[in-house]
């Protein structure tokens, strides 16, 4: 007979899965039925573990197919309509052996059929169904309405009927899939089942109570959600902080491999057709998949790992005003013991009392109540709020536990004073927890930027590089208008600049800030100047330097007299190269003009007609062309000379520029 196992243990993780354990009794060859949501089947098939703890065995694990209901019912040999189900069923199983209880006796036989016969009822007649059975060698008919019990003796018929009914039942929940675990063994035995399914992430929230002169208290609560279809009744609850690897892998949907199609070849002859042997299409064997696997990281300690367990008080009930002091009320509230363990990189909160969370409900579970090392301070960050610092709790995690991130509600002297968010904290981590704006403290900021003097000059590879410091000063003016002394931590951004030697030493350094500590007396103001610097540089190409710039470099002590003389020689050489280039450009322009004139003269000569006056004009044109040709030859020789001379001067200029090397510390 089918049986069910209740949930006994729930382990919730921070990455969206839950580990569930079920334990219970089975007897003989009982079948255990478990219902899961369709979307959880992949996780269940990946993680399901089934153990018979009393010497029995698990013979098989079966689960609903992915086929639609109509296709599944089409595979059944029995059909049961919505109306007339009994008569329709008996009419489909002719020949099946049954045992019928009629009146005070029992009759065994094979079903012949079902007939509708008219039976007299007073002056009228009523049509009633009659079942015909072959009993021994005799045919007997029984009124179906007088049969109190009908037992199917054929196992095949019984199994078909059970399959049909179970399939129809599973269809009522379209999102639900049933898994059947078949067991075998002798007598009553204990069965263990575990699996991992998708679950809501458990959340944390904290309460901090500040009292003058006493250590602050930290109370932690876990928020768990039961979104399943089953109540958690008196379960052992564990909450795991950390991020183990988890993923979804499709094991539920059937996979099919494409196989080659090999056609049978035949011969047209009188002899029998004999199929030829196939060569490339080996049949793939479908192997059964064992649905079993290791459970998720269990709350038990790994072998060889250091064991550490602590009993922490967690109070049930919210703080209330009036009556006994809030702190005393917290101490006197009913406490629960929370066992904590480190499991590798994970951290476990184990609630030792049974927890009950009904389906589609959530619960707050107390996991922590302990004093910690901390104090009230102010934290100023210009980007957070420009005019005021934040009131904070400087919290050091001396609870010995890993604190998961979550919202914090802060009470001071039995009054609500603000809220904050807490990041995940390992033991002995120290954090600032800002919970309110401190209006009693005002901050004004003034920025100043300037360039410092040049401290180095380097001449190399044709470039003069002068290095100096950009200097930035940020002045913070803090006024404490509160009637009590306060400790202020001022965060100044770290942007890659370095603090100057005369800047105050920061109390601590973070990835993005220098944090300066200031003690503020009541009704006073304090000034903090943070001076920073970063390197800057200016570059001058020596090939572009003029005499005025050389004079400036000398007067600024970037270069000495020897380098200045070398730069002047460079300037002179560059001017010589430029003069030669101008001469080349002038002669080139003249040559181009001569070419244009010659084209015009030749065109005129071609247009002249015969005659004495025309011959005289043609002779003049020819003489002009000869004169221009002589000039073109002279220009060609001059350009060739200028090109060689300019190239030589340019080479000398480049050599002089590259030869200058100089470094000066100023």
From TrEMBL:
<keyword id="KW-0175">Coiled coil</keyword>
<feature type="coiled-coil region">
    <location>
        <begin position="563"/>
        <end position="659"/>
    </location>
</feature>
<protein>
    <recommendedName>
        <fullName>DUF4139 domain-containing protein</fullName>
    </recommendedName>
</protein>
């Amino acid at each position: 007979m089918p049986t069910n196992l209740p949930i006994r243990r729930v382990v919730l993780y921070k990455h969206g899965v839950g580990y569930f354990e079920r334990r219970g009794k089975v007897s003989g060859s009982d079948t255990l039925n478990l219902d899961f949501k369709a979307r959880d089947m992949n996780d269940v098939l990946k993680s399901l573990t089934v153990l018979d703890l009393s010497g029995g065995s698990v013979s098989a694990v079966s689960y609903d197919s992915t086929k639609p209901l109509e296709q599944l019912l089409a595979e059944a040999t029995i059909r049961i309509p919505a109306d007339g189900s009994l008569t329709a069923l008996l009419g489909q199983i002719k020949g099946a052996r049954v045992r019928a209880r009629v009146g005070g006796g029992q009759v065994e036989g094979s079903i012949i059929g079902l007939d509708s016969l008219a039976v007299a009822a007073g002056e009228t007649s009523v049509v009633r169904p009659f079942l015909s059975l072959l009993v021994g060698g005799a045919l007997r008919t029984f009124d179906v309405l007088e049969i109190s019990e009908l037992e199917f003796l054929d196992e095949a018929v019984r199994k078909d009927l059970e399959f049909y009914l179970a399939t129809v039942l599973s269809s009522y929940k379209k999102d639900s899939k049933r898994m059947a675990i078949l067991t075998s063994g002798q007598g009553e035995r204990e069965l263990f089942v575990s699996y991992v399914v998708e679950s809501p992430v458990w959340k944390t929230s904290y309460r901090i109570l500040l009292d003058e002169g006493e250590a602050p208290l930290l109370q932690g609560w876990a928020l768990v959600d039961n979104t399943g279809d089953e109540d958690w009744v008196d379960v052992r609850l564990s909450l795991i902080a950390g991020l183990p690897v988890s993923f979804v892998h499709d094991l539920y949907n059937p996979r099919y491999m494409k196989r080659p199609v090999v056609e049978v070849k035949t011969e047209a002859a009188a002899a029998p057709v004999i199929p030829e042997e196939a060569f490339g299409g080996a049949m793939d064997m479908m192997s059964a998949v064992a649905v079993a696997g290791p459970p998720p990281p269990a709350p038990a300690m790994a072998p060889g790992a250091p064991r550490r367990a602590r009993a922490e008080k967690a109070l049930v009930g919210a703080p209330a005003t009036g009556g006994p002091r809030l702190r005393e009320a917290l101490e006197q509230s009913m406490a629960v013991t929370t066992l904590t363990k480190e499991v590798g990189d994970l951290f476990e909160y184990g609630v030792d009392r049974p927890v009950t969370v009904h389906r589609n409900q959530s619960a707050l579970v107390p996991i922590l109540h302990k004093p910690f090392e901390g104090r009230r301070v102010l934290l100023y960050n210009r980007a957070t709020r420009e005019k005021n610092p934040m009131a904070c709790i400087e919290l050091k995690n001396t609870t010995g536990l890993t604190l998961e991130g979550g919202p914090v509600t802060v009470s001071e002297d039995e009054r609500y004073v603000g809220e904050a968010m807490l990041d995940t904290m390992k033991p002995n981590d120290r954090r600032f927890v800002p919970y309110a704006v401190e209006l009693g403290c005002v901050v004004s900021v003034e920025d100043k930027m300037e360039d410092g003097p040049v401290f180095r000059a380097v001449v190399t590879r044709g470039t003069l590089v002068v290095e100096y410091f950009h200097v930035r000063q940020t002045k913070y003016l803090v006024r404490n208008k509160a009637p009590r002394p306060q400790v202020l931590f001022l965060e100044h951004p770290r942007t890659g600049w370095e603090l100057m030697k005369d800047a105050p030493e920061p109390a601590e350094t973070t990835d993005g800030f220098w944090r300066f500590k200031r003690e503020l007396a009541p009704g006073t103001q304090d000034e903090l100047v943070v001076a920073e610097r970063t390197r800057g540089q200016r570059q001058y190409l020596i090939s572009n330097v003029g005499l005025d710039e050389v004079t400036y470099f000398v007067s600024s002590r970037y270069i000495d007299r020897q380098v200045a003389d070398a730069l002047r020689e460079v300037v002179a050489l560059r001017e010589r190269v430029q003069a030669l280039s101008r001469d080349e450009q002038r002669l080139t322009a003249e040559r181009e003009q001569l070419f244009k004139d010659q084209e015009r003269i030749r065109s005129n000569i071609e247009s002249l007609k015969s005659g004495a006056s025309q011959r005289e004009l043609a002779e003049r044109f020819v003489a002009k062309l000869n004169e221009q040709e002589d000039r073109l030859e002279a220009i060609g020789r001059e350009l060739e000379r200028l090109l060689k001379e300019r190239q030589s001067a340019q080479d000398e200029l480049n050599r002089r520029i590259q030869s200058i090397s100089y470094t000066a510390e100023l």
